Structures are given as structure tokens and as C-alpha cells.
């Protein structure tokens, strides 16, 4: 009887040890997979990023080439408060203007992969444009993808830089912040913070409600796994290692604090960031808001499918709301 009891204890100890090792390994893999993305080769490779954009948006090739020949597409770097070196592309409008757009890229992307939105604002609407590389992407430093949460603080700094670059002498810019996918989530997170006086409106295209919701959905879709316990453990490990967690990173909570107009864009066939997330963000936003459900569009391809309509809808929105606040006489909704 005593030997059988000891045998049972050994087996239980082995099982528990294997369970702990399995959960630890799975947690670390999930964190690596989601936040480090294999070193984010896609987001750091500028050559393949340009090739991708020219393949999907052929009109960009001639435009970018003309900008580069004129030295009009420029680089700028800043140091963050924690010492990270951050990079952005920027370009001036073809005429002197205060109108400015800050365009924020998505998950495992970089500034180059927002050149189609730069084209919309700079070529079509004659805006100044700044395109930041978020951390761990493009030419910006960093050790992980921040999923838009801590990125909001960097983007707020980039907004100040854009105002310094583009403001006509003695005045301020008239700024819109426009993000796609994770960049949309970043934009929504930015919108919940106190805003500089030169920011007038936001455009979010297919952003998620929270990092927790997005990862829970992908765990189920890609791996057939429930959120518990891996997501709980990975969130806890992210808190220990990087100082934030998946529930804290909530565009849904941030949008409730937004007091400026916002345009929501979401494809009706988006399964990566499901359409219901865009609807939830829209419902949570108080005040002035508009939404465009893009029929048949999947994730982050609304402009690709409907460039003319996309441009017209964004143009109509910013013409109404990207004006100095002391001139705003906006109806409440």
C-alpha cells in the first residue's frame, strides 16, 4: 500500500511537472509568436515592402519615384523618453497648407506600407503627411510589437513633430490621424488621450476592440484553442516582461473618452478583425461619428478594392471636421 502511494505521488509529480513545462513553453511561444513575430522580418524589410506596395498599387511606383528624385520623401528620427530611436517618413504638400495627416501602419507592417494612404492625403487632398514606423518595425528600434497600446504615446510625440514640421509660420497645423488595422487600434488609443489643439479628427480603418479580444479570436481561429489558460498566462507574462497586458490594451475603453469626430471604416467580410469589432467601437464612441461598412472587403483592403470611394468618403469627412476648433460649429449627435 505504501509503495503504491509513493508510485502515485511520483506519477502525479511527473504529470504536474510536464503540465507546467507545457504551459510555460506554450505561453512563451504565444508571446513570441504574437509580439515578436519571428523578429518581424516583414516589418523590417523595406525592399520587400516597396515591392509589395508597387505590386498591389501600381500607381505608387511613378509617384514615389518622382518624390525621391525631388528629395521630397524624407526621413526623420527622434529619441523617445526611454531612449529608443524612432523613425518616420514625411512629405510636404505641393502648396503651402496647414492641413496635415499622420498615417499609422498595421501589424508587422511599416511606414512604407502606408504609402497608399499617403498618396490619398498628399496627392489627392494636397496634405502634408507624416508616416511613423512603430516600434520594432521599419527603421524604428524596439524589442516587440506593442499592439497599439504603448504606441499611442509615441504617436502623440509624432503628432507634435508633424506640427513642428508643417505648421505655417506663427500658426498650427490642422491635423487628422488615420490608421489601418493595428494602426487603427493605435489611432483609437491615441484618441482617448488629451489632444493637442491642432488635432481635429480621426479615421480608423478596421481596428480591434482590444488586444485580448483579437488574440482570443485568433487562438480559436488558427489553433482551435480557448482563451483559458494560455491567453491569461501570456498576458501575465507580457505584464512582467514589457509592462502592459492584453486587457489593459483596449481601444474600446479609449474611444469612450474621445471627444473629436471619428470616421470608422470596416469591411463586411473581415474575419481577421471581425466586423463586429468596428461596430462595437462605433457604438462606444460618443459625439460626432460616421461609419462606412465596405461591402465585400476583407481585412485592410477597403482602399485596394474601392480606392475612388475610399478617397471621396475620407475627403468628405476631413473637409467637414479638419478645421480649427475655434471655427467648429459642429452639431451634436
TrEMBL record:
Keywords, alphabetical: Membrane, Transmembrane, Transmembrane helix
Domain called Peptidase S9 prolyl oligopeptidase catalytic: residue spans: 150-284
Example GO biological process: proteolysis
A single GO molecular function term of this UniProt record: serine-type peptidase activity
A family per Pfam: Peptidase_S9
Highest taxon of source: Bacteria
Gene3D superfamilies: alpha/beta hydrolase
Residue ranges of the TM segments: 12-35
Name by which UniProt lists this protein: Peptidase S9 prolyl oligopeptidase catalytic domain-containing protein
Species per Swiss-Prot/TrEMBL record: Paraprevotella clara YIT 11840
Amino acid at each position: 500500500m505504501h509503495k503504491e502511494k509513493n508510485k502515485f505521488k511520483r506519477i502525479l509529480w511527473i504529470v504536474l511537472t510536464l503540465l507546467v513545462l507545457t504551459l510555460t513553453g506554450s505561453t512563451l511561444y504565444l508571446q513570441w509568436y504574437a509580439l515578436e513575430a519571428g523578429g518581424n522580418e516583414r516589418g523590417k524589410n523595406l525592399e520587400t515592402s516597396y515591392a509589395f506596395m508597387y505590386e498591389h498599387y501600381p500607381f505608387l511606383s511613378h509617384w514615389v519615384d518622382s518624390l525621391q528624385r525631388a528629395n521630397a520623401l524624407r526621413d526623420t528620427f527622434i529619441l523617445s523618453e526611454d531612449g529608443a530611436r524612432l523613425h518616420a517618413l514625411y512629405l510636404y504638400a505641393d502648396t503651402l497648407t496647414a492641413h496635415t495627416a499622420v498615417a499609422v501602419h498595421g501589424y508587422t507592417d511599416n511606414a512604407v506600407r502606408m504609402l497608399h494612404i499617403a498618396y490619398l492625403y498628399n496627392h489627392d487632398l494636397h496634405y502634408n503627411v507624416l508616416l511613423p514606423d512603430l516600434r520594432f518595425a521599419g527603421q524604428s528600434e524596439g524589442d516587440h510589437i506593442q499592439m497599439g497600446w504603448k504606441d499611442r504615446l509615441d504617436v502623440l510625440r509624432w503628432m507634435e513633430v508633424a506640427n513642428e514640421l508643417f505648421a505655417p509660420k506663427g500658426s498650427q497645423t490642422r491635423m487628422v490621424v488615420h490608421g489601418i488595422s493595428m494602426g487603427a487600434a493605435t489611432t483609437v488609443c491615441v484618441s482617448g488621450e488629451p489632444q493637442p489643439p491642432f488635432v481635429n479628427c480621426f479615421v480608423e480603418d478596421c481596428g480591434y476592440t482590444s488586444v485580448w479580444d483579437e488574440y482570443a479570436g485568433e487562438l480559436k481561429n488558427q489553433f482551435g484553442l480557448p482563451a483559458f489558460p494560455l491567453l491569461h498566462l501570456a498576458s501575465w507574462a507580457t505584464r512582467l516582461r514589457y509592462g502592459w497586458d492584453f486587457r489593459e490594451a483596449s481601444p474600446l475603453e479609449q474611444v469612450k473618452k474621445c471627444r473629436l469626430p471619428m470616421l470608422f471604416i470596416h469591411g463586411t467580410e473581415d474575419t481577421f478583425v471581425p466586423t463586429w469589432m468596428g461596430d462595437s467601437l462605433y457604438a462606444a464612441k460618443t459625439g460626432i461619428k460616421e461609419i462606412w461598412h465596405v461591402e465585400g472587403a476583407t481585412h485592410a483592403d477597403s482602399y485596394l478594392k474601392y480606392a475612388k470611394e475610399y478617397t471621396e468618403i475620407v475627403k468628405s469627412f476631413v473637409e467637414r471636421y479638419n478645421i480649427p476648433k475655434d471655427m467648429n460649429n459642429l452639431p451634436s449627435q
